[in-house]
Write a structure and sequence with these properties.
The complex is a heterodimer of chains A (100) and B (204). With 100 residues, chain A is mostly helical. Chain A has one domain: Orthogonal Bundle (Helix Hairpins), CATH 1.10.287.3510. Chain A contains three helices and no strands. Chain B is mainly α. Among the domains of chain B are: 100 residues, NADH-ubiquinone/plastoquinone oxidoreductase chain 6, subunit NuoJ (Four Helix Bundle (Hemerythrin (Met), subunit A)); 39 residues. In chain B, 72% of the residues lie in helices and 2% in strands. Chain B is built from eight helices and two strands, in the order H-E-H-H-H-H-E-H-H-H. In chain B, helix 2 packs antiparallel against helix 3 and helix 3 runs antiparallel to helix 4. The longest helix of chain B has 27 residues. Classes of the chains: A mainly alpha (100), B mainly alpha (204). Chains A and B meet through helix 1, helix 2 and helix 3 of A and helix 2, helix 3, helix 4, helix 5 and helix 6 of B.
Amino acid sequence: MIVPFNHVLALAGLLFLMGIFCVVVRRSLIMILLGVEVMLNAAAIILVGASLLWHNLDGQAIVLFVFAIAAAEVSVGLAFIVWAYRRTGSVDPENYNILK
Amino acid sequence: MLESLRKYLCFPASRPPSFKLILRSNIAMTIYSIIFYLLAILILISTALAITRRDMVHAVVYLIFSFFGSAMLFYLFGAPFLAVLEVIIYAGAIMVLFLFIVMMLKVETAGQRLFPLSQWLPAAVCAVAYLALGIGLVAADPNGHRVLTTGRAEPAAFGQYIFQKYWLPIEIISLLLLVAVIGALLLARRSKKASARETIEGEL
């Protein structure tokens, strides 16, 4: 491959920025969780790229753990969203003001 | 039969698992880099479409496209096992879970503004600062100009490596998954008292 490592870094950085954008801008808990998934995916891409650059399998091992963490996070997060929806009838974070 | 069983039970103690270098001709290398850039454009476009859709079902479907692109990128980077896992876990399990939740909850999407205008200035300042810092970091990386060479970690060698070096983290992470499943079950359980309170609140 005639691809410098810079371009992999730029791709993963842009993906991570898109994830941050989704988390900050969207007004729905489900879309916020989707943004977190995009960010985790960007981190996985950069780890696999670095693993190829140094021909070291540790990066791929960490990506395996990232997948497991993502699965655990999304299951608990979606269960929280369903729980909060049952209590307030909305997934907009601005409506969660019971403590006010 | 015992011989074949022993072959599967014992690890072959020949060479330590690592990347297998694949040397190809120049034309193949050029094709690989073209594939990389095409995949990068595909991933970026589908992710950008996903995070700007109002309809969440459309967003999830675009994100599935993005994760398929990432899986192909992993395959190109010499991680076929991780490519399979990306399709199964991300594009399969996680996105289907999102689809279930989107269809289960009645979420109103009309009239939802994307961004409150009063927060434009601080958000733009933060974004520009982080973008400048990131570009500086990527440009200043001494390893950044090194060119990636092709290689592949065979799934057998990868599994052997994982269970030789990372067996304890694997056990801990499987325990974490179990705890997450139990927590999700506890949270999603609908008790009678809670549903009664919910109807009262709904009527008020």
